[in-house]
Design brief:
The protein has 126 residues and is an alpha+beta fold. The protein is built from four helices and nine strands; from the N terminus they run E-E-E-H-E-E-E-E-E-H-H-E-H.
Length: 126
Amino acid sequence: MKFPSNVNYTNDHEWIRVEGETAFVGITDYAQDQLGEIVFVDVASVGETIEQNEVFGSIEAVKTVSDLLMPVGGTVKEVNPALEDQPELVNSAPYGDGWIIKIEIADTSQLDKLMSAGQYEQFIGR
């Protein structure tokens, strides 16, 4: 299981990685492992503004559907186009090609409330 140190983590198993003015959002390696084979990802539209901890979409695995929650408030700038044809990228590369959305963060101070890699590892009992 991977816990990259260049991302922040939520209690709901989403991650966020800030790169300049943009932030990538996805689900953690732990979350994709718990869900199993991802078969469909349905997310908010580009341009939609979503508050911290609000649902921005859902992720469907073979046996379950799970809500996706925003780690910080922001505006959706891009939805990962690769997931339309290859939702399994969330399983194979959750922190890489399996990112779900890119956002413009509304309030960067919200990042301070998220977990570091070490804190997240402890949170899930690793």
